[in-house]
Write a structure and sequence with these properties.
Elements (H helix, E strand, L loop, with lengths): L14 H9 L6 E3 L14 H8 L4 E4 L4 H4 L6 E3 L4 H13 L1 H19 L1 H12 L3
Helix pairs in contact: 5-6
Amino acid sequence: FGLNGHVAFVGAVSHEKLLRQMKEGAWDLVVLPSIVTEGGEKEGIPVSLIEAMSYQLPVVSTTTGGIPELLEGEAGVMVSPQDPIALADAIEELAKDPAMRERLGRAGRQRIEEEFAIDSVVARLVSHFEVG
């Protein structure tokens, strides 16, 4: 299974162009293989995954930092950090299964709308501060 013609390494892309391409459906999935650095730094909840999920793109990432919180409920695929074989297997599985990409895309979008969209976040915050 060669990657030529299937995968594009596009280099740096402006945020505006990135969001436009996601909206236009230019991509099939988003992959963020995050790690914990030697100094212990790790991802919080990556905005890049939130943006992809909001456009109903399936995502593949690792079980580091806040990523498991974001992808809970099968809103994406997670693999162990620094496991290139597991990462490649997850990407291959999604590449071969359009129904799985569709299901994960819908689940990811729903997760963002229910738990991370500004309206739902503000409503939860307001309810914590209401005196009643």
